[in-house]
């Protein structure tokens, strides 16, 4: 384990890929490895990119990688994809979407399947960010499946969250109203050369004028045309302005508070793999048992 850890800390791409597979498959060796690596983390900036399907997130991520590499940054990318109903793996692969970076040793890209995990993030995404942080990546980009009322988990993981919208899609502002306003640190209007960009920006700013974030930050609106490389530097600059505000420690504590809750919940479910939820659900639905007694019975097993 120590040798494996040292290889990852030394930037060995094969050791890193093997560790990523162990994490995604929830192998027992992954946790021991992460315990070894964790003291070496805390340097990477985790940037979440989320937005409506078809907003051009993958193209934007591709351009962000180019810009970060131009600055000499080491980049990790976690692309969280929908799950194939046949294989359980990611439907969209990193090789399809970001081929231009496959030979760059300064970039590590991993596609992960959600496997039914709510929130647009795979269950192992937190562990994967820890791995890439320890491996010396300066920036870890986490691209989520989509955006919606249930898909705000990225805010619990990222140091900054970029919400990507496109003009001409009526559901964008509905998504903002559904709670995305609270997680966006930067708005990016991609494909801003299309009709409706002005209107979308006005709608975003109108909603901003009706609500105030607890931290007082007003997320800037950046226009981009990712296919042309336009607006990429401006989007990164907006993210850096947010990160430079000096409340990074407080945000990190808040994020880890939420992540620890999620990790405990997941660990509990993994520990009790033999629980028959279906049978319990049938008993509750038929009113043969109440849900409180069932849960209490399950919790009693923890002390035995």
Please, could you describe this protein's structure?
The chain has 304 residues and is of the alpha/beta class. The chain has two domains: 42-247, P-loop containing nucleotide triphosphate hydrolases (Rossmann fold, 3-Layer(aba) Sandwich), CATH 3.40.50; 272-303, no CATH class. The protein contains twelve helices and seven strands. It has a seven-stranded parallel sheet with strand order 3-2-4-1-5-6-7, with helices on both faces. β2, α5 (94-97) and β3 form a beta-alpha-beta unit. The longest helix has 24 residues, at 248-271. The two termini are 31 Å apart.
**Could you state the order of secondary-structure elements as H and E?**
HHHEHEHEHEEHEHEHHHH
The biggest beta sheet is recorded as: 7 strands, parallel
Examine the coordinates and then state which fold CATH places here, giving the name of the CATH topology of the largest domain. Rossmann fold
**At the first level of CATH, what is the class of the largest domain?**
Alpha Beta
Write down the Rg.
21 Å
